[in-house]
Specification:
The complex is a heterodimer of chains A (117) and B (425). Chain A has 117 residues and is α+β, with helices and mostly antiparallel strands. Chain A is built from two helices and ten strands, in the order βββαββββαβββ. Chain A folds into two domains: 45 residues; 60 residues, CPE0013-like (CPE0013-like fold, Roll). In chain B, strand 24 and strand 25 form a beta hairpin. The chains are: A alpha+beta (117), B alpha/beta (425). At the A-B interface, strand 5, strand 6 and helix 2 of A face strand 4, helix 2, helix 4, helix 6 and strand 25 of B.
Chain lengths: 117, 425
């Protein structure tokens, strides 16, 4: 049996939630103060996800800010960075345009968060 | 001499929201003056998410948040002068601005909104001894290099200060392949939002060294390393704990200062604690017709609150332009024990907009649970229990107009009492 410590970020209290795991199954969750915290802790141990924000090269020089449209698994953040490393974008680009499809096979696209003329 | 009804100085989130609101409320002749070549202020370089949860009820990145306001500004046809620096402001609302195309310009405004924002504290402000090699950056400067220009300032990084920009840059550098060795924080608690400590440091196993500071910087041409040490209760370094960490870059995330050179030039009264102008219920400074909002007044932790405050300033300016009657009766607002500052510092209860008044304040130290007292010279107005208070997270309290008006109140004070602690009033 393994135990994992999760710092809750739902509210400023920052509960240190303790999750006991048996393989991939949750055995118990302790030290949470509310339902939202319980939900957060579950997701954090079973399938933690983050929105990746980074920049891509512009053919016109400088860089373009981008993000994944939805959160991607935390374990793929670095892989996604490598995949996006050599992507070069040609303007014009508007906020919301898809600049890379299906990052690390997650089915999630990368979109522009800035404009480039 | 150019004449304008309203001049907004600064095109960051505060200036954008104030100009848009003033135009919406019927002021036609608005101009926004910005020294950068683009609008948005600091937002275009804040490429991370977490903006807009209060204003748009969705999670946006900085550039996306700015884009919504820039689009609205353009659609409304508000005049903008980019790449233009305001170099002088007088009490009579005369402005001297300069740019490459037009040279010096004299502008006579009927009302002015100051939205110059803030700048970062530097190495000089915190007196770190040692050589002066290259490789020492404020966190915001490094952020601009990476996120706008596309340059990496270094490969092995130590960050001093756990403010939000420092934490955000720890993650950004790590994702871009640099090694962030640690974040040192002189206080016994982090100065950033919990969510940033978790998602920027814990996610990447970056150590956060609390009660630590940098006591020496090594290297002659380029930073080669820093010496860090633990500090005692009085923030004095304990020499026996000194440790050398090799690195080529030191980032400073050690606070922000409102940028008020223009305000001071116009003899606007400055609050010693916030370092920003003293403002009233409609964000008007000590000079009638000159307003201020956003980080130039006090440093905010969320841009959403900057937007709300700036919309109020925009409406305030419109009110002023419609009836030039200045506020007369003022309630003075001050921080009591446990509270660092309160904004606004003056209230004309008769003129409160929409029947309610917001007060922004910060606690002096973290508290698990405390009671906030709102007290006037005529007696207690209200108390409220607050939980999980941190200096880094602004407290936002709304009072109703009825609670303040027609009571001949002269002063108002906010103070915190830790629950279970002894009376320190």
């Amino acid at each position: 049996m393994k135990s994992k410590q999760v710092t809750c970020i739902i509210c400023p209290k920052g509960c240190q939630i303790n999750v006991k795991m048996n393989g991939n199954e949750i055995v118990s969750i302790e030290n949470y103060d509310c339902k939202r915290g319980l939900e957060y802790a579950k997701n954090e141990v079973l399938d933690p996800r983050r929105i990746l924000t980074t920049t891509l090269k512009l053919s016109s020089g400088r860089v373009l800010p981008v993000r994944t449209k939805d959160p991607i698994p935390k374990k793929y953040l670095k892989k996604a960075m490598f995949e996006l490393k050599d992507v070069v974008i040609t303007p014009p680009i508007k906020v919301g345009d898809v600049v890379a499809k299906d990052v690390v096979g997650t089915g999630i696209d990368v979109i522009a968060t800035g404009n480039a003329k | 001499m150019i004449t304008k009804e309203l001049v907004v100085i600064g095109g960051g989130p505060a200036g954008l929201a104030a100009a848009i609101e003033a135009k919406k409320q019927g002021i036609k002749d608005v101009i926004l003056v910005e020294r950068d070549v683009r609008l948005g202020g600091i937002l275009p370089q804040c490429i991370h998410n977490g903006f807009g949860l209060h204003v748009f009820k969705e999670e946006l990145t900085g550039p996306e948040y700015a884009d919504r306001f820039v689009k609205e500004l353009e659609e409304m046809g508000i005049e903008v002068m980019l790449d233009t620096m305001v170099i002088e402001l007088t009490q009579d609302k005369q402005i001297i601005a300069v740019n490459r195309d037009k040279g010096l310009m004299h502008i006579q405004a009927k009302a002015v909104i100051l939205t110059m924002g803030c700048r970062e504290r530097t190495r000089g402000a915190i007196n770190i001894p040692g050589f002066r090699p290259s490789g020492i950056f404020t966190a915001g400067t490094a952020q601009r290099f990476v996120n706008i220009e596309g340059y990496m300032p270094g490969k092995e990084i130590v960050i001093l200060g756990s403010g939000d920009i420092g934490l955000i840059m720890a993650r950004r550098f790590t994702l871009e392949g640099a090694k962030v060795k640690c974040v040192a924080e002189i206080m016994p608690y982090s100065n950033g939002l919990t969510r940033n400590v978790v998602q920027c440091l814990e996610d990447y196993d970056i150590p956060l060294l609390l009660s630590h500071t940098v006591v020496d910087i090594h290297g002659k041409d380029r930073v080669e390393g820093v010496t860090i040490a633990e500090v005692d209760k009085n923030f004095q370094p304990i020499h026996s704990t000194e440790k050398y960490i090799s690195c080529d870059t030191l980032l400073l995330s050690v606070g922000l200062i409102p940028e008020n050179e223009l305000s001071k030039m116009a003899d606007i009264k400055i609050d010693n604690i916030t370092s920003g102008p003293v403002v009233n219920q409609r964000m008007e400074t000590s000079i009638p017709g000159i307003f201020a909002c956003g980080n130039v007044v006090h440093v905010h932790d969320l841009v959403d609150f900057v937007t709300m405050e700036s919309q109020l300033a925009g409406r305030g300016a419109v009110d002023y332009l419609k009836d030039k009657i200045p506020s007369k009766k003022h309630i003075t607002v001050s921080p009591g024990p446990g509270i660092g500052y309160v904004v606004p510092q003056l209230i004309d209860a008769e003129k409160i907009l929409d029947g309610k008044q917001n007060f922004f304040m910060r606690s002096k130290k973290p508290m698990e649970k405390a009671r906030l007292f709102i007290e006037s010279d005529k007696g207690q107005i209200r108390t409220r229990i607050l939980q999980h208070i941190k200096p880094s997270e602004m407290i936002n309290i709304e009072l109703k107009k009825e609670e303040l008006v027609n009571k001949d109140i002269k002063s108002l004070r906010f103070f915190l009492q830790e629950e279970g602690a002894t009376d320190e009033k």
